[in-house]
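Record type: monomer structure entry
Structure origin: computed from sequence
Chain ID: A
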Amino acid sequence: MMINPILGREVITLFRRPRTYFWITVYMSILTLVVFTSWPGHYSSSYGQGVIDLIRTSRYAAVGILCVMMLLIFVILPSFMATTFTREKEENTLASLAVTQLTMFDIISGKIQVGVFYTLYLIMITVPLFGALYKLGGFAMSEIIQGYMIILVMSLAICLWAMFFSVISATSYKAISRSYFFFFLLLIFMGVFSAFLRDLGLGYIFSSAYINPFMSIEAIFFGSAGGRYSSFNLNLSKYSSQNLIFGFFYIETLKIIAFYGALSLIFLLLIISAYRRLQHKWL
């Protein structure tokens, strides 16, 4: 299968930039610090070194790494993906790209693949950290995989809405600011909406865990968002197969994947529509 030429060009350009290695170093340094401070002898020193303490330590550290990963990726990714089209406009290369043999779908899919590749790269370099924690016990690899899936589907949604603002914006600054503003507006609006439904006794219709990836991670590892703060609830009962869907997924994972999958589809359609409407201006 032939690699999309846009993906090949963007990846080569990405790894030629010194700042790429700077941000990767910062990213891994922060995550390594999370593991170091959570390792037995640091975070759990006041609880002893029993088996339960090791389980608690590894479980807390795994959640901490996943949450910090999401936070870092959500900070880095919008600023990168929001410039995918505006950078082409500012460098006057979008017109040249539009008259090549690449179709509109080739161009859009190529840009999406760049964001997915970047996210997968940031995910894969954290595997050794979880490998070290896995030796302590306390969590199943299926839970880490589900955490990765949540990060990936969230990242895809971020890529697509950042690309949409990149298509409709004239400058990179406008596209980046709109992408971040939409992200925070989405979390605030949906959080208020879910609280409103809960006050009406209809909280089962729409929960904050549908949209908040941090709450979803909390639910996977501790049974409910905030469970680890209210008590040392290790939620060992969730290892039971009767709590799994298809023998693998927790319901919290499927909820957030479904929500952000649908959101991704909406923004993909918006990108295609905006690209068709504005394409003549770039030629």
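Annotation 1: The CA atoms of residues 147 and 217 lie 6 Å apart.
Annotation 2: Confidence is low (pLDDT under 50) at residues 43-48, 225-233.
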